[in-house]
Amino acid sequence: MEGVFLLAESDGFLLARVVADEAEILTLAVDPTRRRRGAASRLLAAFGAEARARGAATAFLEVAADNEAALALYAGAGFLRRARRKGYYKVPGRQPVDAEILSMALR
Q1: Contact at 8 Å (CB) between 41 and 77?
Q2: How many CB atoms lie within 10 A of CB 80?
Q3: Which of 11, 19, 47, 62 could be cross-linked to 99 through a Cys-Cys bond (beta carbons 3.0 to 4.6 Å apart)?
């Protein structure tokens, strides 16, 4: 079943969508004072289950190339780096930051 879905717990949330057989993580956020307690990992596990239930065969997302904590989290969940978008994130007063595109098989 295609569409947008929200997964939430008291410490954070994950917003995603499924289109055809692909699931995309749009946003994953955890309260900064509650990080490193497993909330993001639980949300990613729930995402995988929900995306599979909706018929997704693969999942993907993009993340800032300088966000090492997020890159480590996603790698630990099984996501692999697939491509890079040069200068994708524009931040006032900073040099543009590349986006890493990550994906993983769900089936």
Answers
A1: yes
A2: 11
A3: 62
Please tell me which residue in 9, 22, 62, 100 is annotated as part of the active site: 62
pTM: 0.92
Domains contained in the chain, CATH given: 3-105 (3.40.630.30)
Counted residue by residue, the chain has a size of: 107
Alpha helices in the chain, H assignment, sequence order: 39-53, 68-76
* Strand residues in the chain grouped as ranges (E): 3-9, 12-19, 22-30, 58-64, 80-89, 97-105
**Residue 74 annotated to the active site:** yes
9 is catalytic: no
Kindly report, residue by residue over 66-90, the tens digit of the pLDDT.
999 999 999 999 999 999 999 999 9
Q: Which residues pair with 2 in a beta bridge?
A: none
